[in-house]
Amino acid sequence: MSSSRSSFPVNLKPTEPVYIDHPSRLPVELLQQVFLLVIDDMPGCPCIFSLRRFNIVSLDVANPSLVFTRVCRLWRIVAHSTPGVWSRIQVALPGKVTPLKPFLPYFLQCWLARSGRLLLTICIVDESQYRKHFWKEPVENSRLLDILLSESQRWETVFMSPVLGWNPDFNTPRLTTWECNQSNLRRINAPKLSRLHINSRFDLPISMGHISCKDLRHIHLLATSALAICHIIASFPHLETIVVDRISAFLVVPDFIRGLVMLESMILPLPSFLPEDTQQELINLFGGLHLPMLRKLTIVGEPEQLQVDCLLEMLAVASFQVPVVDFQTDTPLSNVYMNNIALLLPIVKEVTFCGNSFQINGVSG
Question: With contact defined as beta carbons under 8 Å apart, do 111 and 61 qualify?
Answer without folding.
Answer: no
